[in-house]
């Protein structure tokens, strides 16, 4: 199943690491550590092979992909030996990267994106293309009345106003082009009524939001522990320090607020109440593509005895995110092939703020993901058997 992976923000750290990782896996130069779709519980015939993934994308940046990969190798994000071993493969992906459309009405820009996606799919004879947003976090957006239905939205896009945030414009273009859409950021993306309706009309799945890679991943494990042990969490405060492009973008208060809101939601929905405290994100340029999170939890147990817990998380955001991007592309492609339509709620395992998720517990999310994937594989095997 030849599958296109079209990355919005294709020259960024997460996208570059995903591309280098996918190429290295295809060439047999690296193992799939971090790719949960390669665990026995999820691996199977419904998922496109790494060798079947073809990369392309949009970006406003113009730095050549090979230079971005070399810079990430210098920063310790990527192994230099892999970048040195893949010059031809990286050059081939470079040919598939396009400048993000920036001229004309939103309707005209969406049409340009649709042309790029369609040309990419046709040129490589792909079965499908999954569009994955790994671009910078947007400020929180408020839905416009014009978002009520696809036809009204389509008309509104022809005007001079910016009706949609960039992530939603890409979602609109992806769905219009017949491509499933995944938002790995906390941006608005497909979370608008008109875009949901459009996805259903086109028979397409979509997924999101905000990849769960570090501190929130730990929260989704620890919060259910406190709830199941009937311990009362009095406060939960966190400080996140990060550099790189994501950190620089989150220096903007509006983008920072959108990210913090996404990170905090797991506590209220897992514990059933919101403890005192909050999460702070600070940009520290010196950290580059690495990040550190420190959390302090105070809680009380039997007879009100007060206790506390602390944890520190040090990680490389791109190296944590990239395998999940590959996982999501494979799973969403398989869901599309199986005829799944609308929000893929069973992919909540991957996200801080998942679409329609009934639980934020990582263990319960894993169970739902395994059942979802098993159904994809079973359906594929049944179809293969009937075809034979």
TrEMBL record:
Q: Which Gene3D superfamilies match?
A: Dihydrodipicolinate Reductase, domain 2, NAD(P)-binding Rossmann-like Domain
Q: Which Pfam families match?
A: Inos-1-P_synth (PF01658), NAD_binding_5 (PF07994)
Q: Some GO term, biological process aspect, for this entry: which one?
A: inositol biosynthetic process
Cross-referenced InterPro entries, in alphabetical order?
Answer: Myo-inos-1-P_Synthase, Myo-inos-1-P_Synthase_GAPDH, NAD(P)-bd_dom_sf
Report TM segments. none
Q: Where is the Myo-inositol-1-phosphate synthase GAPDH-like domain?
A: 214-318
Q: Which GO terms describe its molecular function?
A: inositol-3-phosphate synthase activity
- Superkingdom of origin: Bacteria
Family, as annotated: Belongs to the myo-inositol 1-phosphate synthase family.
Can you name this protein?
Myo-inositol-1-phosphate synthase
């Amino acid at each position: 199943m030849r599958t296109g992976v079209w990355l919005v923000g294709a020259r960024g750290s997460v996208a570059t690491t995903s591309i280098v990782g996918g190429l290295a896996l295809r060439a047999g130069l690296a193992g799939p550590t971090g790719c949960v779709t390669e665990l026995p519980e999820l691996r199977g015939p419904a998922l496109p092979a790494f060798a079947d993934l073809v990369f392309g994308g949009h970006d406003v940046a113009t730095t050549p992909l090979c230079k971005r990969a070399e810079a990430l190798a210098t920063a310790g994000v990527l192994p230099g030996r892999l970048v040195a071993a893949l010059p031809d493969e990286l050059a081939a992906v470079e040919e598939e990267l396009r400048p993000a459309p920036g001229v004309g009405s939103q309707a005209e820009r969406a049409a340009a994106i649709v042309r790029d996606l369609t040309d990419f799919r046709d040129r490589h004879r792909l079965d499908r293309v999954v569009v994955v947003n790994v671009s910078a976090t947007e400020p929180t957006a408020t839905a416009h009345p014009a978002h009520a239905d696809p036809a009204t939205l389509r008309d509104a896009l022809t005007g001079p106003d910016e009706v949609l945030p960039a992530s939603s414009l890409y979602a609109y273009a992806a769905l219009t082009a017949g491509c499933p859409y995944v938002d790995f950021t906390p941006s608005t993306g497909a979370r608008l009524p008109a875009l949901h309706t459009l996805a259903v009309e086109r028979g397409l799945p979509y997924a999101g939001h905000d990849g769960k890679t570090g501190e929130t991943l730990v929260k989704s494990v620890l919060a259910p522990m406190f709830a199941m042990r009937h311990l009362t969490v009095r406060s939960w405060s966190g400080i996140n320090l990060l550099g790189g492009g994501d950190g620089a973008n989150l220096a903007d208060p509006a983008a920072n607020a959108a990210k913090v809101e996404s990170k905090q939601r797991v506590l209220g929905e897992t514990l059933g109440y919101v403890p005192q405290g909050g999460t702070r994100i600070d940009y520290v340029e010196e950290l580059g593509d690495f990040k550190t999170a420190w959390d302090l939890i105070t809680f009380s147990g039997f007879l009100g005895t007060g206790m506390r817990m602390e944890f520190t998380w040090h990680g490389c955001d791109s190296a944590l995110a990239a395998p999940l991007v590959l996982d999501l592309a494979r799973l969403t492609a398989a869901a599309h092939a199986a005829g799944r339509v609308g929000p893929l709620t069973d992919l909540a395992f991957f996200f801080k703020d998942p679409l329609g998720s009934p639980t934020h517990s990582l263990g319960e999310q894993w169970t739902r993901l395994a059942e979802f994937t098993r159904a994809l594989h079973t359906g594929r095997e049944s179809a293969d058997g009937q075809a034979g």
